[in-house]
Design brief:
five-stranded antiparallel sheet, Enolase-like, domain 1, 8 strands, 22% helix, 4 helices, 2 domains, alpha+beta, three-stranded mixed sheet, 172 residues, FAD/NAD(P)-binding domain
């Protein structure tokens, strides 16, 4: 027997709303972190921002750090867009979960069996790799993350073949 508990996060937007700032799944910002009030900026878990033709809010330490650095530079006049490269990790007892990309909009999943208790799931939209979920499989995570960050994909047959060297995908 076991129990699964899912806990969500609701962004704290009350102060922003009281200040007259637009709220849309968090404090709505442009690509540089500016809100609807040009004197107010937002970054981190509470900020929603443009991403691949839509709007997202990422709740992760890497996003909070990376976005805050870009927004701080923009407050000083840099004029740089924040380009998110989503990745996450979590240690769940004896399982290290590492995720690269976002598995939203996928239409195909390739499972790669690893050694022992390791495995990874590779999410595709058509032939394009969009995300990798790796459990106790840091090599699959690192290869998948590099491919996604470069905008490249991975041959599904190579990914599915547990005997194939994943590093070969980086040479294509």
């Amino acid at each position: 027997d076991f129990v699964v508990v899912g806990v969500g996060i609701t962004p704290s937007t009350q102060l922003a709303a009281l200040a007259g700032v637009e709220v849309e799944n968090g404090i709505k910002t442009d690509a540089q972190g500016r809100t609807s009030d040009p004197w107010i900026w937002s970054a981190g878990d509470c900020a929603s921002f443009p991403y691949k033709g839509g709007r997202i809010r990422l709740e992760s330490v890497p996003n909070a750090i990376d976005q805050a650095e870009v927004v701080a530079q923009n407050m000083m006049g840099a004029g740089k867009d924040y380009v998110a490269t989503p990745w996450f990790w979590s240690d769940q007892y004896d399982v290290k979960l590492q995720i690269a990309g976002l598995n939203t909009g996928f239409d195909n999943v390739v499972t790669r069996a690893g050694d022992g208790r390791s495995t990874s799931f590779w999410y595709y939209k058509g032939d394009q790799l969009v995300a990798v979920d790796a459990m106790n499989d840091p090599r699959a995570y690192m290869v998948g993350k590099r491919l996604i960050d470069m905008g490249n994909t991975a041959d599904k047959a190579v990914v599915a073949d547990a005997a194939a060297d994943l590093k070969s995908l980086l040479k294509a």
